[in-house]
User: What shape does this take?
Amino acid sequence: MNVKVNFDRLKNDIQTLAEIGKSPDRGIYRMAFSPGDIEARKWLITLINKANLESRVDSAGNIFAKLTGADDSKSWIIGSHIDTVPAGGHLDGSLGVLCGIEVLRSLLEINYKPKNSIEVVAFTDEEGRFGGLFGSEAFIGELTPERIHNAIDLSGISITDAMLEIGLHSMDALDAKRNPQTIAGYIELHIEQGPILDLSKIPIGIVEDITGLFKWQVRLTGTANHAGTTPMNMRKDAFQGLAEFSLEIPRILEEIGSEKSVATIGRVSLFPGSANTVPGRVDFSLDVRDTSSEVLQALSDSFRKTISAIARRRGLMFDFEVLSSVTPAASDPKILSAIENACNRQKVKYIKMSSGAAHDAQIMARVTNMGMIFVPSKNGRSHSPAEWTPWEDIQIGADILLETIQELTK
Ligand SMILES: [Zn+2]
Assistant: This one.
């Protein structure tokens, strides 16, 4: 198994796709079903056809390339996305899809006949113009009519209208569900989007797990009052409640969390919001992440109790709303060891790590075995035109993906 990808061909594809949807500010604008995304979709389908691979678009707009195996009843799936955030970079998502296509082309050239079929998929709206992870949720059958109905972008355009641009009917996305029995496993190659690999000068990260999270919108309500005439001991100051809670966060993480736990208050609104009024109300967000469901549950209990105790002591009312909650996903040991073996055979340095960002892989893990390969992000930058991975690391990542999929399908 010493076949390598055709790196010049891969590099050329990456550079070509990077020009689609690029604006003068150097950012790429390929939000799902935007003109840039539609152009990239056409380009990708042409690329697949030119490579003599089977191409297909499902009813959720997911684009597939396929190399048929000896047993076509199941496929290994290599996936990611080609949509971007506004002013995004050229590698987030695209790298995984293009490395996947290059792997299929390389295997086709050596007349490799995989045991099971291998498919590459570019999932629709991973980045969230319409909420995010739309294509992978459709694929595993988790879409609902309400979700489709509520999928509206920031400017008020519905996914229904956006999909019509390429002749797709949004409600048909409910039919994109794939029978899990036909999926052998899922692999995603992605840029790390964090600084760990770059700082440690290691080209490959083998993802052991993807963090789960819960996100709350919290409200503490006290009494708004005159900042001059209300004595300190007669105040019900909502901000003081938040301030006290925020200082408890490191202690709670240390006592109840794991070394992977993180918690962030990223948005705070004070009411009435005037310099000479005691704030009678504070609304704030709380985003908490960890790779273990049990740890997340324990953290959730502890955060709730702590805020509640602070509120009681300070005469505040406490309520909160769960904005989102995503369960963590663990990688499959067999896929992990296939990636590890490929690294060892190719004498490539790697570390095992967690993914702090959500990916289509997390959705796929709900129905099948999943594994992820990370390559370094220069200075940890992503979702920005500063996104960069050295070409030699991209080459290493593509070769590791190629050898991993061969091991899994031999
Ligand atoms: Zn991505």
The chain has a mean pLDDT of 96.
